[in-house]
Amino acid sequence: MATYKDAGVDIDAGDRAVELMKASIARASRPEVMGGIGGFAGLFDASALKGMKQPLLATSTDGVGTKTEIARQLGKYDTIGEDLVAMVVDDLVVCGAEPLFMTDYIAVGKVIPERIADIVAGIARGCQKSGTALIGGETAEHPGLLDEDEFDIAGAATGVVDAEKQLSAERVKSGDLIIAMPASGFHANGYSLIRHILSSQKLDLNKKYEGLPATLGEVLLNPTEIYTLDCLALIKAQGEKLRTFSHITGGGIADNTARVIPAGLRARYDRSTWSLPIATRFLAESASVPQADMERTWNCGIGMSAIVDPTIGDLVIRSLAARGMSAWIAGIVEPAQDNDAPRSYLVSEYKG
């Protein structure tokens, strides 16, 4: 006699995981959510969108890459979900969209209910921080494809923006200021390079190296900052003088900013306006990572940039400070000197 459990899939463990995650999911909701978890689909009341002239639905999907391997090695699973939410919802807000709801997908080698519950608790916490409802998800057990302690996560979110309020490169003008918001760490990008450095330099995740504020593992698992509510507040307060945002993810500062700069203009960042994060400098120096490679792999200290009319630069910084978000003027948008030149680049040397 062969059973599903004999094949490596434990249905009872899956049911236990669902029970453990219910409380977390309940905290990550919105009034528009209809029903609870357990159905075949999540339901969201979209009648509120009738108040918009031309509601545009925006969608984004992402994962957290090989940062999951750091979580696995440390046996710490309660923060990686925040990274997932941040990677998804902060892409939505770049176009001015308010995230409405999110679904997740967790693939594991073996369902360990408490571990799944920790991952989902992080996802729910991220949804709370961004005002997003967690309305569904899937946990898949893949025996034989993944080792028992291996896992991967992905998610997708849907948001909405009224067409007349959509942010885009077309709004950006010469003379606009670039307001930088600090990263909380490496976020969820460049971990393949990080893991290569850990291996090649024989670095210990459990060691607190000189200059680092915590053990290397704790630093690397620091969850990604979620900028959604801060950005939405700026949009509401500043209107058309808030041009657009750039979410600094894989590809680094220059490449991501170039995505929101129109032809004929370029964004110039001044490195001397901020210091390279200690952990970034530590890893780069440990393995002699070239600066160009470092800046195309990691965020180097900036997690989100806002491009704004120069008349509101100081106001934006004060507004973010009032919300607990430190920010600074990191650059300016200027006319391009050459049509073939990059639309975004960095000058000077980092402070300190």
From TrEMBL:
Name of this chain's protein: Phosphoribosylformylglycinamidine cyclo-ligase
Matching InterPro entries, A to Z?
PurM-like_C_dom, PurM-like_C_sf, PurM-like_N, PurM-like_N_sf, PurM_cligase
Top enzyme class, one word, equals ligase
Q: Quote the pathway field.
A: Purine metabolism; IMP biosynthesis via de novo pathway; 5-amino-1-(5-phospho-D-ribosyl)imidazole from N(2)-formyl-N(1)-(5-phospho-D-ribosyl)glycinamide: step 2/2
User: Reaction catalysed by this chain?
Assistant: 2-formamido-N(1)-(5-O-phospho-beta-D-ribosyl)acetamidine + ATP = 5-amino-1-(5-phospho-beta-D-ribosyl)imidazole + ADP + phosphate + H(+)
* Family label: Belongs to the AIR synthase family.
Its Enzyme Commission number?
A: 6.3.3.1
Where it mainly occurs, coarsely classed, is cytoplasm
Natural source organism: Candidatus Planktophila versatilis
Please spell out the taxonomic lineage of the organism that makes this protein.
Answer: Bacteria, Bacillati, Actinomycetota, Actinomycetes, Candidatus Nanopelagicales
The listed locations are: Cytoplasm
The segment(s) forming the PurM-like N-terminal domain are 52-161
Domain PurM-like C-terminal span(s) in chain numbering: 173-338
What keyword terms does UniProt attach to this protein?
Answer: ATP-binding, Cytoplasm, Ligase, Nucleotide-binding, Purine biosynthesis
